[in-house]
Design brief:
Chain A is an alpha+beta fold. Chain A has six helices and six strands; from the N terminus they run βαββββαααααβ. Chain B is mostly helical. Chain B: It is found in: Chromosome; Cytoplasm, Perinuclear region; Endoplasmic reticulum.
């Protein structure tokens, strides 16, 4: 391998939005055990990136209101430079990951993280995270609340929105 | 195509394709690789053994971009021109990521890459939902959420079914039964805060966890809430008629209730309480008047639902008396009371209530006047008659601390209800059976008065009074644990069970069983020292 290509470490930060409540209450609520309501973000180049109601945002790692992550997964290394990555993000932010494209169930922060993880490292994020929406929707409770939940945008404050189209 | 070869150098064994022997195209197995940009995705057919450069050529054609703008990434690696696809393990069906560099973007990205470039700092809203935000990640960001919250509430409130479904959900119930949480929610509403400043009693109320819990229980059960509101209205309307009482009421209402309701309404979008309460914000007098009409009369038979009985003259008298405890209003009242001891206590301990009781008992004429004036009774002279006669007794009862304690003991009330139900069943099952002493209180269950042999006092007037009294006394006795053999007999089997479980204190067992109305599990809890609420 080329020694001169820089490697950057890529991590996945996993947050439990329910602060543990899902773990204890999901059996009652949903009839199945969910260990958490997962929100994820990619951490690379010293920054944390995530997708929310405003679009793609970035902040310092662990710098959202959520605080430190519950779990950190090492996704591996990437050769992609920060420059290229940011360009990539900008493009994403203009297209499939605009703020208004956020869908709690189908196109959420974890969708974004999954895609970015694959871009950077070729590895997807753990399936228990991406399976969460379908798990919830498979329960009667999820179905009932779906209309409400669909309109929820989760956007942990503390990040700055990346707007690819604008030149600063 | 041909078999996989090292390129066009070697002539294929039996092939005439020498013309198209180019190093890159046509020789190697063609694979289809998906090239994905942030905005786009294309499937590109390329020879398996191509180099990255060749791949880029193809891509550049497809994506209309210059080759040197292309950055290809696969498995976290940047595909350099000198590499080959196979070197990176790029095979058929796999996806390669592409970023198309643009000159301007390069400079932009470097500036956007600094997070300190504070592009759009997100305001942190003071969501009214407070801690609820941690539950589902709500309220953690945009102004979006506030609207959403409104929307959600509006949706919920306008769809009662959904609301009740939601309410029944144990999670919601859980949340609502957390008084701290609810309290936080309420105090975070700026209007509530204002209100609290003006009226310290409100903050007292909010700080009283017992009360909050009770309120939350009520909120959980819309039907119960409805009943409570109506009864509250009724009680208040009765109080209105007392001299001086009206003023007190009015004060109470304007100072506390109205602002609170409107504040709560703001917060909840469309306060279910107000809807259920019959729109009492519109003004004291008119709402009271309106609310009176349909309310069930707990102190006597409902006018509308028992026209035959009330017209039944003599039969109507005792029947009316017997029905005192059976009217749906009474039932629900009892039910509420059994579930909300606080309610009863509040009601009874409220200063005006007490003084009203006092004055009423001392002045039966006044009391009867009050009752007469109450439109509930207005249409029914019969009722008035009965009530008047029963009034002194009733008032006595209310003064009687024992009676009061019975009424505040949820288990007692529960048992009371159970007894009634039992007696009622007995009535229908064995109409010929006459249980001495307990008969007058027996609900006739809406059946025709003529079928009610249990109303042994056949003539109107004093007997119902006496019978009523007897009933009350009997019940009191029963709950005092002594007197009749009934409790012990009734609970014989339970006593045995408790005994077998190791609870050998028969007295205590019995007490516990009486208090819990025969519910073994509850009795055990009692015995083990958990206090009934």
């Amino acid at each position: 391998m080329d020694k001169n290509s820089a490697r950057y470490n890529v991590q996945l930060y996993i947050y439990d939005l329910s602060r543990g409540m899902a773990r204890s209450l999901s059996p009652i609520m949903l009839g199945k055990q969910l260990d958490g309501i997962w929100h994820t973000a990619i951490v690379a180049y010293g920054d944390e990136f995530f997708f929310g109601g405003e679009g793609i945002s970035s902040c310092s790692p662990g710098g959202t209101m959520l605080g430190p992550p519950d779990t950190v997964v090492e996704l591996g290394e990437t050769e992609v430079s920060e420059e290229i990555f940011m360009e990539y993000l900008s493009s994403l932010g203009e297209s499939t990951y605009r703020g208004d494209r956020y869908r709690l169930f189908e196109h959420n922060c974890n969708t974004f993280t999954n895609e970015v993880a694959q871009f950077l490292t070729g590895m997807p994020i753990p399936s228990y995270i991406t399976d969460l929406p379908s798990e919830v929707l498979a329960t009667p409770f999820g179905q009932i609340l779906r209309p409400i939940l669909d309109s929820i945008h989760i956007a942990p404050p503390g990040g700055n929105v990346i707007n690819g189209g604008r030149n600063i | 195509g041909g078999e996989g070869g090292a390129g066009g150098v070697q002539p294929p064994p039996s092939r005439d394709f020498q013309l198209s022997l180019e190093i890159d195209a046509g020789e190697g197995t063609i694979i289809k690789v998906t090239v994905k940009t942030p905005k786009d995705k294309e499937e590109i057919a390329i020879a398996e053994d191509s180099s990255v450069t060749q791949f880029k050529e193809e891509i550049s054609r497809r994506f209309k971009a210059k080759q040197d703008q292309l950055v290809l990434i696969f498995a976290g690696k940047i595909l350099k021109d000198g590499d080959s696809l196979s070197q990176h393990g790029i095979k058929d069906g796999l996806t390669v990521h592409l970023v198309i560099k643009t000159a301007q973007n390069t400079s932009t990205s470097s500036s956007t890459s600094t997070p300190a470039g504070s592009l759009h700092p997100l305001p942190f809203p003071a969501g009214g939902f407070g801690d609820l935000s941690t539950l589902a990640g709500l309220g953690m960001g945009s102004a979006n959420f506030m609207e959403l919250q409104q929307q959600m509430q509006r949706q919920l409130m306008s769809n009662p079914e959904m609301l009740s479904q939601l309410m029944e959900n144990p999670l919601v119930q859980n949340m609502m039964s957390n008084p701290d949480l609810m309290r936080q929610m309420m105090v975070s509403n700026p209007q509530m805060q204002q209100l609290m400043e003006r009226n310290p009693e409100i903050s007292h109320m909010l700080n009283n966890p017992e009360l909050m819990r009770q309120t939350m229980e009520l909120a959980r059960n819309p039907a119960m809430m409805q009943e409570m509101m109506r009864n509250q209205d009724r009680a208040l309307s009765n109080l209105e008629s007392i001299p001086g009482g009206y003023n007190a009421l009015r004060r109470m209402y304007t100072d506390i209730q109205e602002p609170m309701f409107s504040a709560a309404r703001e917060q909840f979008g469309n306060n279910p309480f107000s809807a259920l309460g019959g729109g009492s914000e519109s003004g004291v007098q008119p709402s009271r008047t309106e609310n009176r009409e349909p309310l069930p009369n707990p102190w006597g038979p409902p006018n509308a639902s028992n026209p035959p009985e009330s017209a039944g003259g003599g039969g109507g008298g005792p029947a009316g008396g017997t029905r005192m405890f059976n009217s749906p209003g009474m039932q629900s009242l009892l039910q509420q009371i059994s579930e909300n001891p606080q309610l009863m206590q509040n009601m009874l301990s409220a200063p005006y209530m007490r003084s009203m009781m006092q004055s009423l008992s001392q002045n039966p004429e006044l009391a009867s006047q009050v009752m007469m004036n109450n439109p509930l009774f207005a249409g029914n002279p019969q009722l008035q008659e009965q009530f008047r006669s029963q009034l002194p007794v009733f008032l006595q009862q209310m003064q009687n601390p024992e009676a009061l304690s019975v009424m505040t003991n949820p288990r007692a009330m529960q048992a009371l209800m159970q007894i009634q139900q039992g007696l009622q069943t007995l009535q229908t099952e064995a109409p010929g059976l006459i249980i001495p002493g307990s008969i007058p209180g027996i609900p006739s269950g809406g059946s025709a008065p003529t079928e009610n042999p249990a109303s042994s006092p056949s003539s109107a007037g004093t007997p119902p009074n006496v019978a009523q009294q007897q009933l009350m006394q009997q019940m009191l006795q029963m709950f005092a644990g002594g007197g009749n053999q009934t409790p012990e007999v009734r609970f014989q089997s339970q006593l045995d069970q408790l005994n077998a479980m190791g609870f050998i204190n028969r007295e205590a067992n019995l007490q516990a069983l009486i208090a819990t109305g025969g519910d073994i599990n509850a009795a055990i809890e009692r015995l083990l020292g958990s206090q009934p609420s």
